[in-house]
Amino acid sequence: MHRIQELDGRYVAQTYRRQPLCLVEGKGMFVRDIEGKKYLDFVGGIAVCALGHCHPAIIKAISTQAKKLMHVSNLYYIQPQAELAGLLAQVAPQGIDKFFFCNSGAEAVEGSFKLAVKHTKRQRIIAMEGSFHGRTASTVGATWHASYREPYAALIPKVFDFVPFNDLAAVEKATTDQTAAVIVEPVQGEGGINVASDDFLPGLRKLCDERGILLICDEIQTGMGRTGRWFACQNWGVTPDIVTMAKALGGGFPIGCFGAKGDVMASFSPGDHASTFGGNPLACEASKAVIKTMLRLKLPKRVARIGKYFKKRLLELKDKHDCVLDVRGLGLMLGMELSSKQIADAAVAKARERGLLINCTADKVLRFVPPLIVERKHVDRLIKELDQILTEVGKC
Ligand SMILES: Cc1ncc(COP(=O)(O)O)c(C=O)c1O
Description:
By secondary structure, this protein is an alpha/beta fold. 40% of the residues lie in helices and 19% in strands. It is globular and about 55 Å long.
């Protein structure tokens, strides 16, 4: 462990606040650190490892493809890419039937902005307070956290208008004849697990339709079954014009994508957008395995069920512990807001000592985004441990 910390400190850019932990292997819901200690994982690479760690279907897909053809340029047709797009069309919100593949979430959002501007021939984008859309120049511009944006102001296009999340009247007021798109996370992840109110997404859909504005749902964290539907916007019966994905899409293999309605994606002509690695055969085979396995296990439905149980159990802890201010979320994207950052940080550290990985976002919100294969027995163990942890940290 010391050697890794030393190497990291000496040679790796120090952009991450790392916990004193080096994970080296995983299986299903569990990971093991370099010293051999086992952890129950409720972070799942932050909503990435949807099928758990090292799922056999993903291993098989990657190793089989690696022996056949690892990379090929988008100059040529790519069989796994075309097949993956076909699968996505089956599960995406109705009408989203054209897909562009890239390598990360930020790239997917960035591409969605380019498409919106090209399609509408307008310049500006409305984003939400509390949003997170990535760290590239334009996506960080649409990200609410000022400390992420301000040092790079010179690089960020001045086209973003922020409005309070869940405030339809504010969105309406902010629109102009130059608004190309409104981007929204149906459940804000990094912002602290904030769920869109009942009428917000349907209201946005109506407003965008009336004003010729595109609605972009950023489903990088909420997508692929996480909220109990394939895409979170489906909980509100809303189809966006563009939807972004990444994280769970490859189950741990890096891949990003944005899907759009056919007539919107048709605004891109050959040469308008590209990526050397985007839609690479290995990544697409991994993603095909993820989607096929999710379909086979009917995972989104299962997530809805176990997510309800998990939330009920978290609410029991809220009733019991004064330091718990709120419990919120949808499916297996749940948050527990604590009374201070100090208490939240202490809870994460104590959980780790007990062999339990949990994450904290927005300073004091414990975020639970476990693999979607999580079972009741795992939830019960988490709740039991968390009960004791909250008793201990609640006093600090
Ligand atoms: C909603 C949302 N959008 C965009 C991103 C950026 O994705 P990436 O880190 O893959 O660039 C994230 C990452 O956390 C996210 O949660």
